[in-house]
Amino acid sequence: MANEFSIIKDSGERETFSIEKLKKSLRLAHADEAEISAILQALHPHLHEGITSKKIYQEAFRLLRSFSRPKASRFYLKKGLMEIGPSGFPFEHFMAEIFKKEGYYVEINAIIKGKCVNHEIDVIAKKNTEIIFVECKYRNQAGYTVDVKTPLYIYARYQDILDNGYLQDENKKFI
Question: What single string gives the DSSP state of each residue in 37-52?
Answer without folding.
Answer: HHHHHHHGGG--TT-B
